[in-house]
Design goal:
357 residues, two-stranded antiparallel ribbon, binds adenosine-5'-triphosphate, binds magnesium ion, oxidoreductase, IsoPropMal-DH-like_dom, manganese, TTC_DH, EC 1.1.1.83
């Protein structure tokens, strides 16, 4: 039976890298005999907002819930629509309503890419950041008192539920279990945040009992960020709350060179709802319309989607093709952010051809 994929390209370079993501997926589907069926939606973009006054139609949930996965480009065009409207009106709706409680980002230094960390080679940086995606510090619980006066008070609470913490930890431990190094690092700050973070630590210790073969360590977020830069080779699977995971999942990919190649997944592991796969980068208005955006972030996100759908070998083949094309270093093929003079299409085609061969 066909796997049904909902495609939402969004804005800016999202509309340019998406066709390359699909080209690569189609080449992979052909080679591995996987039946993928793509359905494109125009909503979830700023143009849709300008026409309809909202980012999504009222029945978006009904329209999308039956799909096996969502393949997303990038959303946002700040000159036309403020970011809080475009982001909250689309992507964050998907994450919340489809209970995509895992945000997963691989951080891997690819051949041919220069890390901003001096002397780092491919192999030195190869880990995953697992971020809690539905509660924690981003829970919008709180309020204001005495607004506009000298006595003004603002409060925002962190919400951690046992279910919410345990389910992200379980995902991270299970992921660590599949990796050769079997190592898990937890981000905490229990010396400063004295109620929720000790609770997080407690749940990590409890979960660790069920995974005796996994080496577990923890760092306070301040020193952890320093260690990402100083010792990226220490890490294998890193798990953090919504805020800490957010910070780490930008810092991690930044250590691996260009933002143009980093992929991400927003996952509902039980498969009750579709999961969403998107590049880490945004709509990049500064380079949109020029055909020079790097499509690798979109293509690699497609590889994560195939893995999620149960085709690990096919997903790995896509990543191998990305690595091979980057290693060859043909400047006519590669985009500018990775040192070439090529285009979105030249790089996308080279990867798709490599997958097919
Ligand atoms: P967001 O608000 O969604 O995080 P943004 O607009 O702040 O996004 P990006 O769109 O990610 O940021 O762009 C940041 C910078 O990285 C821009 O200067 C952009 O040109 C560059 N960039 C982003 N994506 C790519 C890409 N795929 N290829 C090449 N350069 C990119
Ligand atoms: Mg932006």
């Amino acid at each position: 039976m066909a796997h049904r994929i909902a495609v939402i390209a969004g804005d800016g370079i999202g509309t340019e890298v998406m066709p390359e993501g699909i080209r690569a997926l189609e080449a992979t589907a052909k080679r591995f005999n996987i039946d993928l069926e793509f359905t494109t939606f125009e909503f979830g973009s700023c143009d849709y907002y300008l026409e309809h006054g909202k980012m999504l139609p009222d029945n978006w949930f009904e329209q999308l819930k039956g799909f096996d996965a969502l393949f997303y480009g990038a959303v946002g065009w700040p000159d036309k629509v403020p970011d809080h409207i475009s982001l909250w009106g689309s992507l964050l709706q998907f994450r919340r309503q489809f209970d995509q409680y895992i945000n997963l980002r691989p951080c891997r230094l690819m051949p041919g890419i220069k890390s901003p960390l001096a002397g780092r080679k491919p192999g030195d940086i190869d880990f995953y950041v697992v971020r809690e995606n539905t509660e924690g510090e981003y829970s919008s619980v709180g309020g204001k008192m005495y607004e506009g006066t000298e006595r003004e008070i603002v409060i925002q609470e962190t919400v951690m539920s046992r279910i919410g913490v345990d389910r992200v930890l379980k995902y991270a431990f299970d992921l660590a279990q599949t990796r050769p190094r079997k190592k898990l690092t937890s981000a905490t700050k229990s010396n400063g945040i004295s109620i929720t973070m000790p609770y997080w630590d407690e749940r990590v210790a409890e979960m660790a009992k069920q995974y005796p073969e996994i080496a577990v360590d923890k760092f306070h977020i301040d020193i952890l960020t320093a260690n990402f830069v100083l010792h990226p080779d220490w890490f294998d699977v890193v798990v953090g709350s919504n805020l800490f995971g957010d910070i780490l999942s930008d810092l991690g990919p930044a250590c691996t060179g260009t933002i143009g190649i980093a992929p991400s997944a927003n996952i509902n592991p039980e498969g009750k709802f579709p999961s969403l796969f998107e590049p880490v980068h945004g709509s990049a208005p500064d380079i949109a319309g020029k055909g020079i955006a790097n499509p690798i972030g979109q293509i690699w996100s497609g590889a994560m989607m195939l893995e999620h759908l149960g085709y690990k070998e096919a997903g790995d083949a896509m990543v191998d093709a990305i690595e091979a094309v980057l290693s060859e270093g043909d400047s006519q093929v590669l985009t500018r952010d990775v040192g070439g003079q090529g285009t979105t299409v030249s790089l996308g085609k080279a990867i798709a051809e490599r997958i097919g061969s």
